[in-house]
């Protein structure tokens, strides 16, 4: 499921932004299609423009209510009439999505029946990113369950013992059952304070298994990020290879 809407507060119309000749939503959808583990790919949206664009390229769309603010609510509505054990959520502003991470997201469900939610985390290598409020930071415990998310730098470094810092990405997976439970949990104080919907899961005492990848990940938050994304595609051999694959799909 790829949630997308035109009414982004920081970058209106973001899903249809042109990136090297393709709308951003198509970069994401086509990259997800490259995964051999995915049965079906749907874009979940409330906007006619996005629906028409995706269908123009042959993609599948589920129309949802316009009232949703959180992407998880949109995905849950879109998934109601779809039969699936696991729903993988890839936000529509992840044009550099790596298809192979879907296997990493799904493996914890197969290895541990208590896992109901996984979230892709990537290493933060640039210390300037710690002060960027558009980047949600995460800390995990010894068994890789997420302890907390914040837009502030975490952990606070009082003793410089080289702590590992993670970035939350817009890529996660849920059992179909837990996704339905999640959206019915009452909103929480920290979720609203930080504007991070996954804090609702933690505040209600549920677990999120962090899945760490060594590659840096980059989402699109503002219009100026498009140029950065295009430069990465042009100069990073792996990203260029994926682009060459999707442009011919």
Shape: globular
The arrangement of helices and strands along the chain is EEEHEHEHEHEEEEHHHEHH
Corresponding CATH superfamily: Spore Coat Polysaccharide Biosynthesis Protein SpsA, Chain A
Mean pLDDT: 94
The count of helical stretches stands at 9
Strand runs, count: 11
CATH topology tier name: Spore Coat Polysaccharide Biosynthesis Protein SpsA, Chain A
Give a description of the structure.
This protein has 249 residues and is an alpha/beta fold. The chain has one domain (2-220): Spore Coat Polysaccharide Biosynthesis Protein SpsA, Chain A (Alpha-Beta Complex). It has 9 helices and 11 strands. It has helices spanning 24-33, 48-56, 71-79, 101-111, 176-184, 189-194, 199-203, 225-235, 237-246, and strands spanning 2-4, 18-19, 22-23, 42-45, 60-63, 86-90, 117-123, 137-140, 146-150, 166-175, 209-213. The strands form 3 sheets. Strands 6, 7, 8, 9, 10 and 11 form a 6-stranded mixed sheet that branches. The protein starts with a strand and ends with a helix.
Compact overview of the structure:
The chain contains 9 helices and 11 strands. It has helices spanning 24-33, 48-56, 71-79, 101-111, 176-184, 189-194, 199-203, 225-235, 237-246, and strands at residues 2-4, 18-19, 22-23, 42-45, 60-63, 86-90, 117-123, 137-140, 146-150, 166-175, 209-213. Strands 6, 7, 8, 9, 10 and 11 form a 6-stranded mixed β-sheet that branches. Strands 1-4-5 form a 3-stranded parallel β-sheet, sandwiched between helices. Strands 2-3 form a two-stranded antiparallel ribbon.
